[in-house]
Amino acid sequence: MPNADIKALREAIQEHWSGEPSDKAKSYIGTFFEMARIGARISAKVEGNHGTYTVSVQKDEQGLSSACSCYIGKYGNCHHCAALALTFLNNSSAFREIETMALEDISDLDGLQRYLGETTLDSLLKELRSKGITQKSLAECMGMNTRHLSSVRTSELRNRYYRELGAIKLACLWMLEHLDRDGTKH
């Protein structure tokens, strides 16, 4: 029996992209590289008309979300997203499965870099929120505008990356490790 994440992702893709793909989408099916899957999220790169794009499709609580770094793919409504989804349906075994690393398993800088690449800022902010630390308080603590922090978070979800993303993720990890619910050291 296939992995539950693969099954859930396949079903969501089939429901979302049930019609005939556009001619533009057809031209990209099977042309992706660096194809990877983490749980119910797939991502890959593709050569487009204006450079290399990062494309992702994910089964989540809301159903299916997708994003592309092309100029029209902000919310996943581009032919690259459809093509990635159909590429997955055609050959899901071509996507390299990446097992997520637990924070406590980090033992060196390579492990830290891998962890930061696998973990989204959005998930770290949710973890902080569960400990009573808001996105606003994090931004204020770092001397950052809250709208800029929101922009960094949503941009990562859309496969666009700010230079300070890694530093913000490290700040989140430090706060998760060292601060209690009220923002005091434990």
> Which structural class do you get from the secondary structure elements?
alpha+beta
Number of helical runs?
Answer: 8
Q: Which shape, going by the Cα principal axes?
A: globular
Report helical residue fraction: 40-55%
Spell the H/E element sequence.
Answer: HHEEEEHEHHHHH
* Poorly predicted parts: none
Average predicted local confidence, pLDDT: 88
Radius of gyration: 18 Å
Distance between the termini: 45 Å
* Tally of strands: 5
Binned strand content: 15-25%
Please give a handful of descriptors for the protein shown:
186 residues; alpha+beta; 2 domains; five-stranded mixed beta sheet; 17% strand
Question: How do you describe this structure in short?
Answer:
This protein has 186 residues and is an alpha+beta fold.
